[in-house]
Amino acid sequence: MNIVDSIQKVVTNASIIGAIVATIGTILLGYWLRKTDRLKEGAVKTLTAVTMTVALPLLAFNSFMTPLNQKTLEQGMSVLIWGLLIYIILIITMPWLYAKYGKDEKDVLGVLTSFGSTTFFGMPIVGAVYGAKGVMYASIFNIGYRVFLYSYAYIKMSGQQLKGEHIKKMLLNPIVIATFLGLFLWLVQNAAPQVAVSVTNATTGKTAIQHVAFFRLDATMPYLYSWFKILASLASPLAWLAIGANLAQMSFGEALKNKTAWYYSFNKVIIVPVIMIVLLVVTSSMGILPVDHIALATMVIMMATPVATVAVNYAMAFNRQSLMASNTSLISTIFATVAIPVWIIIVQLLGDMPLFK
């Protein structure tokens, strides 16, 4: 398949185009609702709270309610290792992009460039485009992100030692709990007590008896799983509405004039995912930590997200270039909203390479 055919295949894919339209359209809707005061001032916090404590944890947990097979296990382990390696690489290399800046600006921009909004911005998009498998890979990939965000980023931004309260806060995060619980159940399901369930093939309509782990809610308790799916499906629209509403509350004037914010956004949304792609192409061609198309797409999209809210909060809490951090948050969110559809198309084209089959 040549490049023209590949592009045509992508731009005529209804599910991909639908996901892109839904993402941008809902963000714009959130912006309009807040700008016209139909969403009140506290609405962003409420939308964010529901998304982070209910919808995203269930989205992560539900993604692990799937059979365990050797290929998916190998892919998951590759994604886990990449989730650790990429942050080590970014932590070392990103400050060099700001070598001409003062030490404080260089340190802060290095941290902000290394950590994106992979959970709140990335996972809903991955789920909308790549479904449960994409969310599973995103959840596994995010393990490394959370380890370094709550340790290295905190120490670097605060100048303090990591305390037990910060580790406790990380471990008690609902998304972290849901991810580790789901991952554990997914890994041990073949060794757990099995129950017989009746499964209907969606294609043929024929019913067969299968044996699954008793905690596979999708098969053993479909009524509960259906409820979980409904709540999980709120993640994307609520997150996108919150992103749009939050943009409406920010001051555009100064941020748009800030050249550093634009330079940062280019690095975060363009350079970082390019690094991810280059590393994946090189290592997969050598047979080192090879990944399939969905794993590739998931990791690239997660890397193309705007600055992490937690990292910006660190900057503000410890008075580390707080105005610059706020400006980078606004510009990188706009930049990412425009760039993500392009990245989706690019990773779909890369998926046609034999390397990622």
TrEMBL record:
Bilayer-crossing regions: 14-34, 46-65, 77-97, 109-130, 136-155, 171-188, 224-248, 269-288, 294-318, 330-351
Location (main, coarse): membrane
Extract the InterPro entries matched here: Mem_transp_PIN-like
Membrane topology per the entry is: Multi-pass membrane protein
Q: Which domain of life is it from?
A: Bacteria
Compartments in which it is found = Membrane
Report what the protein is called: AEC family transporter
Its lineage reads: Bacteria, Bacillati, Bacillota, Bacilli, Lactobacillales
Has UniProt tagged this entry with the keyword Nucleotidyltransferase? no
Its keywords, alphabetically, are:
Cell membrane, Membrane, Transmembrane, Transmembrane helix, Transport
Q: What PANTHER family does its record include? A: AUXIN EFFLUX CARRIER FAMILY PROTEIN, SLR1864 PROTEIN
